[in-house]
Amino acid sequence: MGPLRLGNFPLDNRRLIGALFLTPALLYIVLLVGFPFALSIAFGFSDVTVGNTDLSFVGFRNFLAVWENDIFRQVFETTIRFTLISQVFILIFANILAVIFTQEFTGKWFARFIFILPWATPVSLAMIGWLWMLDTKYSPIDYLLLQMGLLGRGGLLSDNRNLYWLAAPDLAQISVIFVQVWRMTPLATVILMAGLSSIPTDILDQAEVDGSRFMRTLLQIKLPLILPIMVIALLFSMITMFGDMTVVYVLTRGGPVDYTRVLGLYSFQVGIEGGNLAQGAAISLFAFPLLLAMAIFMLRTASRAEVR
Amino acid sequence: MSALSFVLTNFWTLLVLAFLGLVALRIVWRVRTYGATRAELRHVLRRSPFYFVVLVFCFFAAAPFLIMFLHSFKTDGDLYRRPQPFVYRQEPTLEHLDALFNNTAYLDFIRNSVLVGVAVVIITLLLSLPAAYALARLTGRWGERAGILMFLVYLVPPTLLFIPMFRIVVLLGLKDSPLSLIVVYPSFTVPFSMWLLQGFFKAVPPELEEAALVDGYNRVEAFLRVVLPLSLPGIISTVVFTFTLTLHEFIYGLVFIANTSQRTLSVGVPTELILGDVYFWQPLLAAALIIAIPVGFAYNLFLDSLVQGFTMGAVKG
């Protein structure tokens, strides 16, 4: 019976079916990601605008103009700074939360629902909540600080009744980083939870038999084992955050002045709002080498974890 | 309305009472089940630092949503004049909710989002179900490389592609139509759901398919009649997360569609419900909360399944 079935009929041929099954998805992706990406590079080397649609080659002019632009330098630096600083906090909180949520406790389902909300809510809608929380005049945070005597006349933080969260340069930057940590921590937590729950139980049983206590098991067995997954979680949230423009679009539009302008937003403002598609494309292309480096690093770490 | 009014005006008292009541209820239940009151109380005390940490995290996560809820029913006077954001000094009102649904394009946004989401889910399933099965079972090293490529593609952020995508959408004549989003969104939903589905398919024991093959099914039939029904829970969770991915998307929606009535929720609410510098805060906050709660609920319901798919997708097949 066996030999009869081995690839005699086209519908039984593994490789043929495999190729047939995979091709439509691959084709769609190549068309919808590969082609625009190529076009983006073509745009970067051209002088295309919303009005002028023919692509005449202008060499590296756009890239040079972008690179020599002081605003771009600042935007690039801000993007990297925001991304790196927020990752530190995301990693700390995500580790704590992942350990919490892989335990059993009363009220876990409800606690998990609450803690997942920042990630589940569409970013732009969650930002509306923060826009009000950080409002110049009506901020509930300011109200609390005022009641505690930290604001207002003789207050520890400021003599004003408000801190102007999104209007003061330093505070605006801190606010944006805080909000990013707030919304990205659940994603990193979920990835870490996947790592913690995939640790083979016999290892943990053995540790328990050997008399290892909770903290020791955590620090010497669990955390080292999920280190590769931690790197994946880290790079996942880094890449997401590096390409994000929604948070600052809703909260600050890049202000005050340029203090919270990030790469994605700048390329949107130049390319779409300003109508200069070529320069907008050139700006976003500057992100590509960094993203590629992160992705390669991520894959190498992941594959090393598999070899282990 | 009067029940709502009671809840809102006594919100914090009720919250604390509810929490203490639940704690008391749990202690009573445990004591009745296991006996030993003192041991139980000691257990609660020993665990209280843990619960304290959980509560602090929950508070930070929930803060903006609490504010959204508390503010959605405030009158303008209560909200803006000598504000006390955490309490109601005037009778709560439903007028802002009424205005949100009847005087704004909110219902249009919901309709557009659902339309786009459902269409994208269908396209995504049609493309990624067979492709994920191919990656999980049929192709060897070649398929593995394709899988990694797909994963990389998922990581390409929309900010890198929206300018050429905009050009293409204009050329196709799809500007200002939700159709543009239906065409473009699978570019990130397909890689995402392929990754998840591949994990769920790997979890199906291969022996079952082999048994089906021996029984005279061919590969395609084995996939349709054995693997698909067995991975139904995974497929449902993939559908949920694919749908919410489309709900979350902001940049393409912002760039491709400029007229109010065609916009989706994530773009429409923060751009169209604000007129110039005038913010209609109560409807805005309500509009965000109404979407946040069900999506959060769905996420929590399917989270275990997502974690499982993610882990299985990462395990070498």
| Cα radius of gyration of chain A in angstroms | 25 Å
Total of helices of chain B: 16
What coarse outline of chain B follows from CA principal-axis ratios?
A: flat
What proportion strand of chain B? under 5%
Largest interface, C-beta closer than 8 angstroms, per-chain residues: A-B, 98 and 102 residues
Write out the strand line-up for the largest beta sheet of chain B, numbering strands in chain order. Answer: 1-2
**Rg of chain B (CA only):** 25 Å
Mean pLDDT over the residues of chain A: 85
Distance between the termini of chain B: 56 Å
Instruction: State the low-pLDDT regions of chain B, or none.
Output: none
E-strand count of chain A = 0
Mean pLDDT of chain B: 88
Low-confidence stretches of chain A: 1-7
**Helix-and-strand structural type of chain A:** mainly alpha
Give the domain tally of chain B.
2
Query: What proportion strand of chain A?
Result: under 5%
Architecture overview:
The complex is a heterodimer of chains A (308) and B (317). Chain A has 308 residues and is mostly helical. Chain A has a single domain, classed as Orthogonal Bundle (MetI-like fold), CATH 1.10.3720.10. Helices cover 71% and strands 0% of the residues of chain A. Chain A is built from 15 helices and no strands. The longest helix of chain A has 32 residues. By secondary structure, chain B is an all-alpha fold. Chain B has 2 domains: 92 residues, no CATH class; 214 residues, MetI-like fold, CATH 1.10.3720. Chain B is built from 16 helices and 2 strands. Chain B has a two-stranded antiparallel ribbon. In chain B, strand 1 and strand 2 form a beta hairpin. The longest helix of chain B has 35 residues. The mean pLDDT of chain B is 88. Chains A and B meet through helix 2, helix 4, helix 5, helix 6 and helix 8 of A and helix 3, helix 6, helix 7, helix 8 and helix 10 of B.
